[in-house]
Design goal:
There is one protein chain. This protein has four helices and six strands, in the order E-E-E-H-E-E-H-H-E-H. The protein has 173 residues and is α+β, with helices and mostly antiparallel strands. The strands form two sheets. A four-stranded mixed sheet has the order 1-2-4-3. It has a two-stranded antiparallel ribbon with strand order 5-6. The longest helix is centred in the C-terminal third of the chain and has 50 residues. The protein is elongated. The two termini are 42 Å apart.
């Protein structure tokens, strides 16, 4: 059983990785990450196998962007805007309504203006992800060793007490 944290930074983001491991017969990995990192799930699981042979390991990965997302862009669908405009004008003629049309109105029509995000992860961010992941694995492994030593110490105390009890019982016979 153990827990580990890792943090690394790229030029435009901060990556946090936390691992939670509990004892188990087989290696079971549960992946919880920002969708941008789904493409790295297989690679992360392979890397995890270098640190863990068995147990249930939850991997949590978060991403904090600094100053907005440089991979986000605004798209204008001019063709759709023209279709809306023609429909608007047709409706206005049919209903005999004279009303000025403002650009703010056109911009609010569904799907005329959309923000889109490029899902590709830049190499600097991928490097930061794996740095944070390795840090979390090492910290978790260190915690598991510490806990293992503590459990061993507790079990040795119990064995000592049992040995004393066995000697006591044998002396009674």
């Amino acid at each position: 059983t153990g827990f580990g944290l890792g943090r690394s930074e790229s030029p435009f983001s901060q990556i946090d990785v936390s691992l939670r491991a509990v004892n188990g017969r087989f290696l079971e990995v549960r992946f919880h990450a920002a969708r941008e990192f789904y493409a790295f799930e297989t690679e992360i699981k392979k890397r995890l196998a270098k640190y863990f042979e068995r147990g249930t390991v939850d991997i949590f990965i978060s991403r904090r962007l600094r100053g907005g997302n440089p991979h986000q862009s605004v798209q204008v669908n001019k063709h759709l805007a023209k279709q809306y405009l023609e429909a608007y004008r047709t409706l206005a003629r049919e209903l005999k309504i004279r009303s000025p049309l403002h650009i703010e109105t056109i911009a609010r029509w569904p799907d005329v203006i959309k923000a889109e995000e490029d899902q590709t992860v830049p190499s600097a961010e991928k490097k930061a992800l794996f740095q944070a992941f390795d840090m979390a694995c090492k910290a978790c492994d260190k915690e598991r060793l510490r806990e293992g030593k503590s459990l061993r110490k507790d079990m040795e105390k119990v064995l000592e007490l049992l040995e004393k009890e066995i000697i006591h019982i044998q002396s009674i016979r």
